[in-house]
């Protein structure tokens, strides 16, 4: 019977093999890839999640990124062929036959699909998988709207040093409680906490396992306590991290090899594995901006893969420091753009963020101080919180541009998260934040702003079911009094659409703001028709074109004259062979605020008789006296006409000031300043302002000078000379480097019959001793007014008619810090006949 049984088993085995062979299955062939949901457990085999962030999908390992994810199998006979047997990938992604998943995810969700692999002999295997398409990495930070930033550690006064200092620090922590810190964030209306976990004194607030020369680390795992406490209460935790460890110059910790970089690589990985949600990397990692800092202190090419591979959803913000807010470094890996406020007690120290023009979806963060210092001051006389109304006003301004507001205030060495001196201000700020916390869902569009449409379109806006959408197409910011969206919006010409949604019980959403380009027959040329287009003017063909391999924007800065203009078209000089689509950015010079983005398609636009291709833009009002930057992004393929602006044409309604270069992300820094822009041609309508006296100084050239005529720069890098002649009392001219200084205004020609000058000083920055002078030639000067012991903020000076081109306002006092007046700040300088 045993032999019969063995014989029967053999028959069954033979039948089974035949059955499998017929169906094409092979018991040795199997798919080894696992679903995205298993990534934290099996990162080596799991599908790396996609992020709906407007950039190409990448999968990461600690070795670096790949622009695809490779499905894997084993067994059978390679090579393998892959296909989707059932289900679907996230919208925008595709699977090729080699098993690579690539593309750009465009819709969030967990997508179930069945992968099929077939080997070279026809055997196949299938496996059900799930691919996660997550929101953009920093969406949670963007949605947080408000958070708290605490600088605290052994550097908190009284400052301590070395291992003995760490021991003393841990003993003096008598009021630190991680749960209370997390609860305090909630009580203040916040959803994210940033804490100095590893600062420039070299001390890490956890018992790290990465070896270093001095082993400057606490025994208590303060970092983990905070991470766990925040997560328990639904708060996100961001670790402040300083790449340099040299704040205490006589006690500098490094890795065993003597470098910061090796130590930092280990510390970052520890924090990722410990569960931080993000990193706030301080400015010594921004070596593109600051000389003297070593790239290898924080080697991004190794650091980012460590973050991305060990936790795909961890975010990082690269702080660019004071006056560099909005500069985008390490793009496109950046997740948060930072604006850092200063330590002055004045409102000017409170940063206001700008909308970003980058393609990737990012969060914008602004960090401002409640007091005038990042760290606790032992002397109570040195602690002075800013007025609550000032802080709330600043919060509102930042929320208007969609920034997440991070409020920083210092805590004492004992770890008391709610110091008595700040309690009243914090309570009032919390009351405002809680009433206005949250966003309604931002509207989404059915059309793309990266496509040029050849005919009119209908734009569909969608948002959450209970929300109402309000929109504008006239350039104004939408409010709840704007037009209510009831159905598709007809777009028959290039238009800028801005929209908000409002859900019951929630504040309005962030502003949706996109420009949709319609190239109709009147402003469109097919590629085949190019040869029949009018020949470019000689000026267009005589130029030796230049390519821009780094993707910089090239353009110019202009100042509008005494009357506003409505800009309708931007022209780029045509050069043979160009066929790319180029982004246009128009920003205000005074504050770098982007006011319009559009595009110019060299492959489709006709060449005008003047040799330019003109891109239609949504009509844009440029104000009288204001300066603007108009730039077009160039590339390594198309050539542009370089211009050094040493000899540029003049126009009656605007003045070309100088060349301009912007980074590929549309910001002023970092760029390689070769002093080459490009001369753009503008089509516009001149707007008339009836009944107004003509201010002869409006929009004219202005300079900051020392009283010995040496050139000066603007104070705080923002108080430009142009601000004194822009017709705007909200901007100010103030020289940096010297208290006594001179404003020089050049009217460009001698103007006859001038008989009135008006100077408006700033409320808290005014001259107590000054004189006003005029000259026809910048050589012979006539004094119009000399005043001492001045306390007036408005000087309205009338005099007998004169013919003059140049004017000076020369301040003699204040002459040092602490003097009455604080320093001459000129809001506006005006001249009239």
UniProtKB/TrEMBL annotation:
Domain called Glycoside hydrolase family 29 N-terminal: residue spans: 174-436
PANTHER family listed in its UniProt record: ALPHA-L-FUCOSIDASE, ALPHA-L-FUCOSIDASE-RELATED
Entry-linked InterPro entries: FA58C, Galactose-bd-like_sf, GH, GH29D-like_dom, Glyco_hydro_29, Glyco_hydro_29_N, Ig-like_fold
Keywords: Glycosidase, Hydrolase, Signal
Residues spanning the signal sequence: none
Name by which UniProt lists this protein: alpha-L-fucosidase
SUPFAM superfamilies xref list: (Trans)glycosidases, Galactose-binding domain-like
Domain of life: Bacteria
